[in-house]
TrEMBL record:
Name of the protein in its database record: HTH cro/C1-type domain-containing protein
Domain HTH cro/C1-type residues, every copy: 10-63
InterPro entries noted in UniProt: Cro/C1-type_HTH (IPR001387), Lambda_DNA-bd_dom_sf (IPR010982), TPR-like_helical_dom_sf (IPR011990)
Protein source organism: Roseburia intestinalis
GO MF terms, alphabetically ordered: DNA binding
Top-rank taxon: Bacteria
Length: 311
């Protein structure tokens, strides 16, 4: 996607989704910049272009938004940073982030946000998940969403980096539970409306897992069942089974806690046993034999709780 194509794609999808220019560029660049980009009278670097496209759920591939030789060098540095982070090469990643900061455009918030996101990922790799991590994540989010945690907008567009940082912040900062739950539901609505394919399945599942985690802290077992059902439905619409075994196993354990002391007990326990079997099979497919044995053992324990009906 050359720069001249980016303007066409941005304008096409903005009009298709009935979005205003300010909806897409809020916190990223000025409306004037986006307007000139759509008109073909302004060029932007690849990271800014990717972020704008990401807000409407569109991904770009290698070289598609490279603007110049300098932009290409920045792209290569980002690739090296991400590879180092993924391989847990923390010292190398930190060094490359410092180098990137020395040459990146200083007038675009998306570059500093990118650096803060990668810094946060290195801290997680070091198991440094305290208040410093949360501070970095919140700082990065607020670069492009200044109103974050100050006002709760039900209609908001998100870039992939913004979603990644928000999910990490909610995961490692359990405070402000109600606000976190609403933000997750807002992101879920955005993902459902603007993303598709494997990306939609993975991000939606990650969101459901965080929603489930919030309900676990509140011991709200009925909501756990609700969100696990929604997660299973979401995954079933895709091509993979990302975290599906974990969700089935959690559902079985939650169902046991909800089992009433009446005639329905056997039926509900049998459903939980079936979910344990499904979880065990999925774990085996993933090569997670220990987890498969745990699910099987848990299911066997449920058998002991069933009672034969009186004659």
């Amino acid at each position: 996607m050359e720069q001249k194509m980016m303007e066409v794609v941005l304008k096409y999808y903005r009009e298709k989704y009935h979005l205003r220019q300010e909806d897409i560029c809020r916190g990223i660049c000025s409306v004037t910049t986006l307007s000139r980009l759509e008109q073909g009278s302004r060029e932007v670097d690849s990271l800014l272009g990717q972020t704008l496209l990401g807000r409407i759920g569109k991904e770009v591939t290698l070289f598609e938004t490279i603007l110049s030789e300098q932009d290409y060098e920045l792209w290569k540095m980002r690739e090296q940073i991400e590879k180092s982070v993924e391989n847990n090469q923390v010292k190398t990643a930190k060094k490359k982030i410092r180098e990137y900061r020395g040459v990146m455009p200083q007038d675009e918030s998306v570059h500093e946000q990118y650096c803060l996101y990668q810094e946060a990922r290195t801290m997680i790799a070091e198991k440094n998940t305290g208040s410093s991590l949360c501070g970095i994540l919140e700082k990065g989010i607020c670069l492009t969403i200044p109103e974050f945690r100050k006002s709760m907008e039900k209609v908001r567009l998100y870039s992939p980096v913004e979603i990644g940082m928000i999910l990490l912040l909610i995961h490692y900062d359990p405070s402000k539970t109600e606000m976190a739950e609403q933000e997750l539901l807002n992101i879920l609505a955005y993902v459902s409306g603007y993303q598709s394919g494997g990306k939609k399945e993975k991000v939606s599942t990650d969101i459901f897992l965080e929603l489930i985690s919030i309900q676990q802290r509140k011991n709200d077992y009925r909501k756990i069942m609700f969100y696990t059902e929604k997660a299973i439905q979401c995954i079933s619409e895709g091509a993979g089974f990302y975290h599906l075994a974990d969700i089935y196993f959690l559902r079985a354990k939650t169902r046991e806690k909800l089992t009433p002391k009446n005639a329905d007990k056997n039926m509900l326990l049998k459903k939980a046993m079936e979910e344990c079997k499904i979880a065990a099979c999925l774990y085996q497919l993933e090569g997670q034999d220990e987890k498969a044995r745990d699910a099987e053992k848990y299911g066997e324990g449920l058998v002991c709780q069933t009672t034969e009906p009186e004659i």
